[in-house]
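Rotation project, supervised by the postdoc (A.L.). Task for the rotation student: set up a whole-complex structure prediction and record inputs and outputs verbatim in this book. Inputs entered:
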Amino acid sequence: MNEDDLIRWLKRRARGQGGERIGDDAAILPAGGPWVTTVDCQIENVHFFSGTDPAQVARRLLAVNLSDLAAMGAEPAYAFLALSAPSSFDFKRFFEGFLEGCEAYRVELSGGDLSTQPTVTAALTLIGKPFPDGRFLERGGARPGHRLWLGGSVGESAVGLALIRLGACLRENRVDLTALGRLGPEASATAAQCVMRHLRPEPQLELGRRLATTRRQGAAIDISDGLAKDVHRLCRASGIGAVIEADALPEPAGWSELEPLVDEPWLHSALGGGEDYVLCFTLPAREEAPSELGARPIGEICRGHRVMLRQRGQLRELPPSGWDHLARDRGPHLDG
Amino acid sequence: MNEDDLIRWLKRRARGQGGERIGDDAAILPAGGPWVTTVDCQIENVHFFSGTDPAQVARRLLAVNLSDLAAMGAEPAYAFLALSAPSSFDFKRFFEGFLEGCEAYRVELSGGDLSTQPTVTAALTLIGKPFPDGRFLERGGARPGHRLWLGGSVGESAVGLALIRLGACLRENRVDLTALGRLGPEASATAAQCVMRHLRPEPQLELGRRLATTRRQGAAIDISDGLAKDVHRLCRASGIGAVIEADALPEPAGWSELEPLVDEPWLHSALGGGEDYVLCFTLPAREEAPSELGARPIGEICRGHRVMLRQRGQLRELPPSGWDHLARDRGPHLDG
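Outputs recorded:
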């Protein structure tokens, strides 16, 4: 199938999902706005292992980008995809996975670019708009006295990656842990959850919508490069400091069996792992966040510019020890 | 320099050019529109040779994307860049080149994504808006009786690439043809022009603006994958056919000396070379296009769905023999 044939197929397949906009030199989008726009990549051997199901790569690409829109409190609208891969790559399977995701999250695939290169590289641009009666969220809105919240647990995705390196995998939508040896039921359930969190992140769009439509103050960011690093970013943007409670980041059930496999303390993964794709946000102290959407308080915002960790009653400074995208070249890592 | 340092440097460097929007999870763009959006890539060893000056890669990336906006008759507004490269890559030099281009074309670099991978891969999303009193151009507006126009010459970029393969290169803004052996003055001038056309395409934004603001009928496309292929696309989108006059694609001066080097007839490069980045458009027969911007008539639109070439009085069907992005994996080619 050549490029024009693939584009014709795609226009048909994506009819009603933006496909009618595909095929000119650029796509025309209606007047409106304000808009938010974000770009993120998934690259073979950086963000996923060679040989990963193309549909799986596509869904993850969409999810990690949608997480940025969730952190802005924006409603997804349009997607533009730049995809380059070897000519043997199953482009159709990629697009099937991508369009399923687009349908679930009501995104229209409105244009893109295809080319061949040895390494599968997908860059996605998403354009979002405000929810009705919503305001965009930003990193710079945290104030002393706010509480710091997380939209879910962190650390599981990094542990999931470590387990995948040890041979855990997904077979027909079920996690196969055989390669890890015997595990008790709690450790097995946690391990399976970690693998799924890594491979199938779920963007917190509903939490973003709730925050954007109900609160009047606060900051938000999504945790892609590790809690420590992303809280540092939020604090820097807001000109404040923060205290994180280690007790708010508890070990999951069965961790004592998994720690020897992963060879890192739980708190390292929770603070520095990354690829969690949960929202981190602040609210005035008297406001509660929706716990039914996974929100839990993990600390508070204070004056100054330092990020501290309170553990067993002791305060210590927390370095921004998340992943640095430019510091190293190596296999799939914890990159957002 | 790590990622956060680079982004801080970039925010400062791009101040007044969109830099104030960089650094949140997504960039907020003002309400307005309608908008046009396009995405295009430049990939090492696909669109440019390994070792090319990063500033040069950046300028070319911007130019080929702007050519898509020119073909839509849109005014450039915002850029979003996904850049992945080895950690040894000179990211700063890339951004210096990119921002120089942004300044020249009044584009704001408003966000992006950075990561490391072995192959330099840059995907650019551009968002444009209508010119004041302008209408967007589209591929589907060609009608029987229109004349077919080109915004400049085609074929030179493909010849330039062939000459670069033979050792021609750019040194401090001058084309060095030493590797090609002795050439007469006309052939030298043509060869230098071809190399520049390949390395430094110039998007026809002013021609796009003129067409968008003055004409009421017609179609437009930019020639990125070869004249034959892109005219086929325009015809398919408009539901019509076309006749191209071979005499309107004359050999450049000194061609007899260059043809043995390039080893392809001129007309092959002109029809199938690609990466020309000139506009191809149609106008009602009585309307003239601005010749001071390089526009020249090359044929006419007719009923049916075939694209024909008239050469020495003979009509023959012209296959869409431009470059197919998915058909082959090999070194730098003629890809748009």
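Student's summary: The domain at 25-130 of chain A is CATH 3.30.1330.10 (60s Ribosomal Protein L30; Chain: A;).
Supervisor addendum: Residues 81 and 112 of chain A are 4 Å apart (CA to CA).
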